Amino acid sequence: MKKSKTILALIIIMNVLISNFLDIEAISFSGGFSPRIVTNLYYYRATNESYLSNAANNWNNISSKVHSSSNSNYYSHVYITESTSGSSGVLGRIVPYKSSCTWPLDPSERISCFTVANTTETWNYVYLYVYVNNATTSTSQKYTAVHEYGHVLSQAHNNDYSVMRQGIYSLTAPTNYDKNSLRSRWGN
Ligand SMILES: [Zn+2]
Protein backbone atom coordinates (compact mmCIF):
# COMPACT_ATOMS: atom_id res chain seq x y z
CA MET A 1 0.00 0.00 0.00
CA LYS A 2 2.72 2.42 0.99
CA LYS A 3 4.77 1.48 -2.05
CA SER A 4 1.87 1.99 -4.46
CA LYS A 5 1.20 5.42 -2.94
CA THR A 6 4.81 6.36 -3.51
CA ILE A 7 4.63 5.17 -7.10
CA LEU A 8 1.39 7.12 -7.62
CA ALA A 9 2.99 10.24 -6.17
CA LEU A 10 5.95 9.84 -8.50
CA ILE A 11 3.67 9.43 -11.50
CA ILE A 12 1.77 12.61 -10.56
CA ILE A 13 5.02 14.56 -10.12
CA MET A 14 6.28 13.29 -13.46
CA ASN A 15 3.07 14.34 -15.20
CA VAL A 16 3.41 17.84 -13.81
CA LEU A 17 7.00 18.02 -14.92
CA ILE A 18 6.20 16.71 -18.38
CA SER A 19 3.29 19.15 -18.72
CA ASN A 20 5.44 22.08 -17.71
CA PHE A 21 8.17 20.89 -19.97
CA LEU A 22 5.87 20.77 -22.99
CA ASP A 23 4.83 24.38 -22.60
CA ILE A 24 6.47 26.44 -19.93
CA GLU A 25 4.75 29.77 -20.31
CA ALA A 26 1.15 28.99 -19.46
CA ILE A 27 -0.12 28.97 -15.90
CA SER A 28 -2.56 31.85 -15.59
CA PHE A 29 -3.37 34.71 -17.93
CA SER A 30 -4.79 37.56 -15.90
CA GLY A 31 -2.69 39.88 -18.08
CA GLY A 32 -2.06 40.09 -21.80
CA PHE A 33 -2.80 42.58 -24.55
CA SER A 34 -5.15 45.41 -23.71
CA PRO A 35 -8.74 45.12 -25.02
CA ARG A 36 -8.08 48.04 -27.37
CA ILE A 37 -5.25 46.15 -29.07
CA VAL A 38 -7.03 42.78 -29.14
CA THR A 39 -9.87 44.33 -31.14
CA ASN A 40 -7.38 45.11 -33.89
CA LEU A 41 -4.40 42.83 -33.39
CA TYR A 42 -1.76 42.82 -36.11
CA TYR A 43 0.48 39.82 -36.64
CA TYR A 44 3.52 39.47 -38.84
CA ARG A 45 4.31 36.03 -40.25
CA ALA A 46 8.06 35.79 -40.62
CA THR A 47 8.11 32.54 -42.60
CA ASN A 48 6.10 31.27 -45.56
CA GLU A 49 3.88 28.62 -43.98
CA SER A 50 0.21 29.49 -44.34
CA TYR A 51 -0.81 27.39 -41.32
CA LEU A 52 0.78 30.05 -39.11
CA SER A 53 -1.62 32.67 -40.46
CA ASN A 54 -4.53 30.26 -40.36
CA ALA A 55 -3.90 29.68 -36.66
CA ALA A 56 -4.30 33.40 -35.97
CA ASN A 57 -7.28 33.78 -38.30
CA ASN A 58 -9.02 30.74 -36.75
CA TRP A 59 -9.60 32.81 -33.61
CA ASN A 60 -11.46 35.52 -35.60
CA ASN A 61 -15.27 35.78 -35.87
CA ILE A 62 -15.80 34.28 -32.41
CA SER A 63 -15.88 37.43 -30.29
CA SER A 64 -16.62 40.83 -31.82
CA LYS A 65 -13.91 42.17 -29.49
CA VAL A 66 -11.14 39.97 -30.91
CA HIS A 67 -9.79 40.32 -34.42
CA SER A 68 -6.36 39.60 -35.89
CA SER A 69 -5.01 40.50 -39.29
CA SER A 70 -1.62 40.39 -40.96
CA ASN A 71 0.47 43.49 -41.33
CA SER A 72 4.02 44.61 -41.93
CA ASN A 73 6.62 43.84 -39.29
CA TYR A 74 6.78 47.51 -38.32
CA TYR A 75 3.14 47.66 -37.26
CA SER A 76 2.70 44.17 -35.84
CA HIS A 77 1.90 43.19 -32.26
CA VAL A 78 2.66 39.51 -32.76
CA TYR A 79 5.66 38.08 -34.55
CA ILE A 80 4.95 34.51 -35.69
CA THR A 81 7.66 32.19 -36.89
CA GLU A 82 8.80 28.63 -37.24
CA SER A 83 11.99 27.79 -35.41
CA THR A 84 14.23 24.75 -35.23
CA SER A 85 15.73 25.60 -31.84
CA GLY A 86 13.09 24.20 -29.50
CA SER A 87 14.35 22.41 -26.40
CA SER A 88 13.58 18.71 -26.27
CA GLY A 89 9.82 18.13 -26.04
CA VAL A 90 8.81 21.79 -26.44
CA LEU A 91 6.44 22.17 -29.40
CA GLY A 92 5.95 25.90 -29.19
CA ARG A 93 5.94 28.89 -26.92
CA ILE A 94 5.17 32.56 -26.72
CA VAL A 95 7.39 35.28 -25.26
CA PRO A 96 5.44 38.41 -24.27
CA TYR A 97 7.09 41.80 -23.91
CA LYS A 98 6.09 45.03 -22.23
CA SER A 99 7.31 48.45 -23.24
CA SER A 100 7.33 52.00 -22.05
CA CYS A 101 7.79 53.24 -25.64
CA THR A 102 4.96 54.33 -27.90
CA TRP A 103 3.62 51.87 -30.44
CA PRO A 104 4.26 51.37 -33.35
CA LEU A 105 7.95 50.74 -33.10
CA ASP A 106 10.43 49.62 -35.66
CA PRO A 107 12.37 46.45 -34.76
CA SER A 108 15.53 48.30 -33.73
CA GLU A 109 13.56 50.37 -31.20
CA ARG A 110 12.02 47.23 -29.72
CA ILE A 111 15.40 45.96 -28.57
CA SER A 112 16.01 48.92 -26.27
CA CYS A 113 12.41 49.50 -25.15
CA PHE A 114 11.12 46.01 -24.47
CA THR A 115 11.53 43.71 -21.51
CA VAL A 116 10.01 40.24 -21.10
CA ALA A 117 6.61 40.38 -19.41
CA ASN A 118 4.81 37.76 -17.38
CA THR A 119 1.23 36.56 -17.77
CA THR A 120 -0.16 39.00 -15.20
CA GLU A 121 1.21 42.12 -16.92
CA THR A 122 0.02 44.18 -19.88
CA TRP A 123 1.75 43.21 -23.10
CA ASN A 124 2.81 45.31 -26.06
CA TYR A 125 4.44 42.68 -28.21
CA VAL A 126 4.60 38.88 -28.42
CA TYR A 127 6.91 36.46 -30.19
CA LEU A 128 5.23 33.16 -31.13
CA TYR A 129 7.41 30.20 -32.01
CA VAL A 130 6.44 26.83 -33.48
CA TYR A 131 9.38 24.51 -32.94
CA VAL A 132 9.36 22.33 -36.01
CA ASN A 133 12.29 20.28 -34.76
CA ASN A 134 9.80 18.88 -32.19
CA ALA A 135 6.43 19.46 -33.89
CA THR A 136 7.33 17.47 -36.98
CA THR A 137 3.94 16.53 -38.44
CA SER A 138 1.59 18.87 -40.25
CA THR A 139 -1.13 18.20 -37.66
CA SER A 140 1.09 18.86 -34.65
CA GLN A 141 2.32 22.08 -36.25
CA LYS A 142 -1.24 23.30 -36.85
CA TYR A 143 -2.25 22.33 -33.31
CA THR A 144 0.79 24.05 -31.82
CA ALA A 145 0.25 27.27 -33.78
CA VAL A 146 -3.44 27.60 -32.87
CA HIS A 147 -2.67 26.63 -29.24
CA GLU A 148 0.07 29.24 -28.94
CA TYR A 149 -2.11 31.89 -30.56
CA GLY A 150 -4.68 31.06 -27.89
CA HIS A 151 -2.05 32.09 -25.35
CA VAL A 152 -1.57 35.33 -27.32
CA LEU A 153 -5.26 35.94 -26.59
CA SER A 154 -4.76 35.17 -22.86
CA GLN A 155 -6.19 31.67 -23.04
CA ALA A 156 -4.80 29.33 -20.37
CA HIS A 157 -4.48 25.55 -20.36
CA ASN A 158 -7.45 23.41 -19.42
CA ASN A 159 -8.46 19.76 -19.32
CA ASP A 160 -11.49 20.03 -21.59
CA TYR A 161 -12.05 19.32 -25.28
CA SER A 162 -10.00 22.33 -26.29
CA VAL A 163 -7.04 23.43 -28.36
CA MET A 164 -5.69 24.76 -25.06
CA ARG A 165 -5.49 21.28 -23.61
CA GLN A 166 -1.94 20.11 -24.00
CA GLY A 167 -1.33 17.31 -26.43
CA ILE A 168 -4.62 17.02 -28.40
CA TYR A 169 -2.88 17.21 -31.74
CA SER A 170 -6.00 16.32 -33.69
CA LEU A 171 -7.51 19.72 -32.80
CA THR A 172 -6.39 22.45 -35.17
CA ALA A 173 -9.15 25.03 -34.60
CA PRO A 174 -10.91 26.43 -31.54
CA THR A 175 -13.69 24.20 -30.18
CA ASN A 176 -16.98 25.35 -28.62
CA TYR A 177 -15.21 25.30 -25.27
CA ASP A 178 -12.53 27.63 -26.65
CA LYS A 179 -15.09 29.94 -28.23
CA ASN A 180 -16.94 30.31 -24.93
CA SER A 181 -13.67 30.83 -23.10
CA LEU A 182 -12.60 33.56 -25.54
CA ARG A 183 -15.96 35.34 -25.19
CA SER A 184 -15.84 35.15 -21.41
CA ARG A 185 -12.38 36.74 -21.45
CA TRP A 186 -12.99 39.50 -24.03
CA GLY A 187 -16.75 39.81 -24.54
CA ASN A 188 -19.29 38.53 -27.08
ZN1 LIG B 1 0.39 26.09 -23.89
Which structural class do you get from the secondary structure elements?
A: alpha/beta
The CATH topology annotation reads as: Collagenase (Catalytic Domain)
Bound molecules: zinc ion
Mean pLDDT, rounded to whole units? Answer: 85
Query: What low-confidence regions span 5 or more consecutive residues with pLDDT below 50?
Result: 4-25
Name of the CATH class: Alpha Beta
Strand content: 15-25%
Topology:
Layout (H helix, E strand, L loop, with lengths): L1 H21 L12 H4 L2 E5 L4 H8 L10 E3 L7 E6 L8 E8 L7 H7 E3 L8 E7 L6 H15 L23 H11 L2
Parallel strand pairs: 1-2, 1-3, 3-6
Antiparallel strand pairs: 4-5, 4-6
Helix pairs in contact: 3-5
Zinc ion (ZN) binds next to helix 5.
Describe what this molecule looks like in 3D:
With 188 residues, the chain is an alpha/beta fold. It has one domain: Collagenase (Catalytic Domain). 35% of the residues lie in helices and 17% in strands. It has a 6-stranded mixed sheet with strand order 2-1-3-6-4-5. It is globular. The structure holds zinc ion. The site of zinc ion has 5 residues, from helix 5.
